[in-house]
Design goal:
about 140 residues; alpha+beta; 2 domains; two-stranded antiparallel sheet; 7 helices; 4 strands; about 10% strand; elongated
Length: about 140
């Protein structure tokens, strides 16, 4: 893990280590590499690309972390931390991008989580999944009917 190669003592490098973006980068490193990380089991096999082991490269690829957002592996929640599979996400986006999120496809309309369909239709996510699982309704009927 390198922050600013060859410039570790520069004022710019030291200032960047106090930024929200640096804290997100450091947390990513901890999740994947620290054996003592409390939820390490959730990150077994998740890798960080070689380029992102240097903070300046991560910053160049991701940009500064916007207020209220956090680092999210997307579109592949089971994928690695690398360009093309990460974004800055809102808490709601993070909540919808979990391994446990159930995706429900409505043909011709789209695929969303039960929680996202709930926000669209006004029907609770648990009622949507209950209608599909217990009542054997089609996704469209469970959501809109």
């Amino acid at each position: 893990m390198v922050v600013c190669p060859g410039r570790e003592d520069s004022a710019e490098c030291i200032a960047s280590m106090k930024s929200p973006t640096y804290r997100s980068w450091r947390a990513m490193i901890q999740r994947c590499q620290s054996p003592s990380y409390h939820a390490r089991h959730l990150y077994q096999g998740v890798k960080i690309c070689d380029r992102w082991r240097i903070f300046e490269n991560f910053l160049a690829d991701m940009g500064e972390r916007p207020p209220g957002m956090s680092l999210d592996r997307y579109p592949n929640v089971k994928g690695d931390y690398e360009p093309g599979n990460c974004r800055w996400a809102t808490p709601m986006q993070q909540a919808n991008n979990r391994r446990s999120s159930r995706l429900i496809e409505v043909p011709g309309v789209g695929t969303k989580t039960a929680a996202e369909w709930s926000r669209v239709s006004g029907v609770s996510g648990s009622l949507i999944t209950q209608r599909i699982d217990r009542d054997k309704k089609s996704p469209a009927d469970a959501i809109f009917g």
